[in-house]
TrEMBL record:
<protein>
    <submittedName>
        <fullName>Fructoselysine 6-kinase</fullName>
    </submittedName>
</protein>
<comment type="similarity">
    <text>Belongs to the carbohydrate kinase PfkB family.</text>
</comment>
<keyword id="KW-0808">Transferase</keyword>
<dbReference type="Pfam" id="PF00294">
    <property type="entry name" value="PfkB"/>
</dbReference>
<dbReference type="InterPro" id="IPR050306">
    <property type="entry name" value="PfkB_Carbo_kinase"/>
</dbReference>
<keyword id="KW-0418">Kinase</keyword>
<dbReference type="InterPro" id="IPR002173">
    <property type="entry name" value="Carboh/pur_kinase_PfkB_CS"/>
</dbReference>
<feature type="domain" description="Carbohydrate kinase PfkB">
    <location>
        <begin position="20"/>
        <end position="261"/>
    </location>
</feature>
<dbReference type="GO" id="GO:0016301">
    <property type="term" value="F:kinase activity"/>
</dbReference>
<dbReference type="InterPro" id="IPR011611">
    <property type="entry name" value="PfkB_dom"/>
</dbReference>
<dbReference type="InterPro" id="IPR029056">
    <property type="entry name" value="Ribokinase-like"/>
</dbReference>
Length: 280
């Protein structure tokens, strides 16, 4: 089976205390589900636990008909986060990764993953060591999120084709940042600026994309939706980055209108506890 998009990384039960619900989430997980909803042949690989949150996430993946060709289920608690909302803005207050630890991917699993038009991962996936084994065998997409660690970026960028970044939490010049990124050999660099839209650097060309006007319900996962829309379009026209960006912005706007990253939830009467908060 050849997949359009194979997403590797985090699946997280996002707990909203005011709703007493968990919502399906996690960057790599969201990207796979949304890509499938957009019509892509999407697959996902990540670590699930064995608690009720894990079952909810795993069953959601099956209902969404996202392929999960390799099982990695470990006894214990699934990754979970606490989400606090301020109007339409959602903020991650705490994250407990549970059983989610360093990935251990053998050659057979890599063969399955690489049989895809695009393989997508992120900084939360522990997937860095596998990038060189896939480079030049498939197109690699990587989400750096808010991270600005220069040594980390310089190490990873040469191993991927498409790089995504979220707006820095500190003051920076977006154009200069993308110029610095593009000099490190990446094919396309995309920087999300929230309500200000997106900047994309392709070679010497800097492209600006405007965010579509929307009455946002919840912005959590909007960046994942942008990535899913962008990559799904590239599986159809692999070099039309400008159109891919437009599709990504359209998808992001759509998912700002749903509660949680995907709009899929399950009630939790008991408050979800965090035992090992790794969110800093």
């Amino acid at each position: 089976m050849e997949y359009d998009i194979f997403s590797v990384g985090d699946n997280i039960a996002d707990y909203y205390p005011e709703d007493k619900k968990v919502y399906a989430g996690g960057g790599a997980y969201n990207t796979a589900v949304i890509a499938k909803r957009l019509g892509a042949k999407a697959a996902y690989y990540g670590v699930f636990g064995t608690d009720e949150n894990a079952k909810f996430l795993y069953n959601t993946l099956k209902k969404e008909k996202v392929a999960y060709p390799v099982n990695d289920i470990r006894k214990g608690r699934n990754a979970v986060s606490i989400i606090k909302r301020k109007a339409s803005e959602s903020q991650v207050e705490a994250v407990d990764k549970g059983v989610y630890k360093n990935l251990s991917i053998n050659k057979n699993v890599l063969e399955i993953i690489k049989n895809s038009k695009i393989v997508h991962s992120n900084i939360y996936a522990y997937f860095e060591d596998y990038l060189p084994k896939l480079h030049y065998k498939t197109r690699l997409s990587f989400d750096f999120s808010y991270l600005r660690n220069k040594s980390y970026i310089e190490d990873i960028i040469p191993k991927v084709d498409i790089a995504f970044f979220s707006e820095s939490k500190k003051e920076e010049n977006p154009e200069k940042f993308l110029e610095w990124i593009s000099k490190r050999g990446v094919e396309a660099a995309v920087l999300s600026l929230g309500a200000e839209g997106v900047l994309m650097k392709i070679g010497d060309q800097l492209i600006k994309g405007k965010a579509l006007p929307v009455e946002a319900v919840d912005t959590l996962g909007a960046g994942d939706a942008l990535i899913a829309g962008f990559l799904t379009y590239l599986t159809k026209e692999e070099k039309n980055y400008q159109k891919a960006l437009a599709e990504g912005l359209k998808t992001a706007a759509k998912y700002c209108k749903v509660r949680g990253a995907l709009g899929v939830s399950e009630p939790r009467e008991e408050e979800v506890k965090i035992y090992n908060n790794i969110h800093g």
